[in-house]
Amino acid sequence: MPMKLGQVVGHANSALMLAFVALLVLIPDAYRVVALAGLCLSTVIVVIARGDQYARLDRDDAWFCAALMLYGAVWLLDVWRSGHWPIIERAGNRTLPIWPLLAVPLLIGLRCYPPNPRMLWWGACLGASGAGLIALYERLVLGAERASNGINAIPFGNLSLLLGSLALMAVLWSLRYRSARHVSWMVVAILATALGLLGSVLSGTRGGWVAIPFMMLLVYRAARDVLPRRVLRLGAGGLAALMLVTVMLPHSGVGERVGQVTSDAHRYWQQGNAGNSLGMRLELWRAGAIMVAEKPLFGYGERHMESALRALAEEGRVYDRVIIHVQLHNEIIDTAARRGLLGVLSLILLYAVPLWLFWNKLRRSRHAPDLQILAAAGMMVPVAFFDFGLTQSMLRDLRGLSGYLGLCVVCWAALRAREEAPGVARSGSCGLHPGANIEDDGDRFFVQRSRSRS
Predict the structure, then answer these.
(1) How many angstroms separate the first and last alpha carbons of the chain?
(2) Which residue from 66, 53, 43, 110 is spatially nearest to 417, judged by alpha carbons?
(3) What's the whole-model pTM score?
């Protein structure tokens, strides 16, 4: 029996979800190619979708789209008034402000023809495993100081950590089923988790490690209704031991990086020496605070922020070497210096709206563990990127911004697809018990899914 058009589009959306998550840090230009393919497919969906597909969109989707559009609009307004597109390190001028606006039709397309939620877990496991293997190859075979896969080591390490944490959520997802096939899948997910964390460690990205406790709290919250308390404690202990062993590996470089932080802090605070990684960041933040105080409402703009930073260095008000950087290494400070308090408001909403939407789904799905796992995975993305943004402007990085937008959108689409599938609890009503064996893959998922609407 031939598949209907809706099933074909749903399978295409699933393939794009898998490709984006899996290839985000593995292939340098994959984020661009997959996003372009998704945008083209979304354009087709807008044309072919009927009223019953659009009926799936609700107020929560509207809030999500509004946050994306506000952030993009404020950034574009700043580009218009300053006449300058963002300059990205090693990449030159880029049209990043348009990307949040392009994420809106992607979200609509995924909601109208929902993907298979399991593709999120496959993508996270493939991406985390690939990142860890690449990191091992670069450190052990090539002898690189920091694993990076040819991109900036900081976003590589941060995204590896996030993908590894999502793979850990895939472990919980597999525990809901009782079959040999899902035991094998659980082993794959555990291995992917370890490799994702290893990729972060071998990248030497210290700032991203701040996010680990918060993401593990989300894992614990999602696991409460999936695992018995005794098993949960055992799993938490095993994960802590795994992380400790990884950190203590001779080639991890963690001890050296931690010692460097201590040395840098001493030289900056006691000797006034800003010529190190920590001191440079502190000087950049101080420069940003000065600029925000001078132009708090709208900031200096994309074109003039670097000029203002250079002027501060020439006047001796900050360390003169800060001019080698094109960002202030803190998402909020950098945004405030460029786009003022209005830009900061749009940034906070970009974090807070998805976080609030995922939290509502987590809170209202007490008897549906699979929904809780997907909601907690969605919460991981804004929580992680907020923490990453404390020491790096991740949303001014090509993979950072695409990763945040893409992962937020696909996690939301996967959650809503599972929420609307037959037999799954909605908003706190009674739902599946942890051992329920309701599959959500292949044609069966799409046939069942096409018969139900929110």
Answers:
(1) 27
(2) 110
(3) 0.87
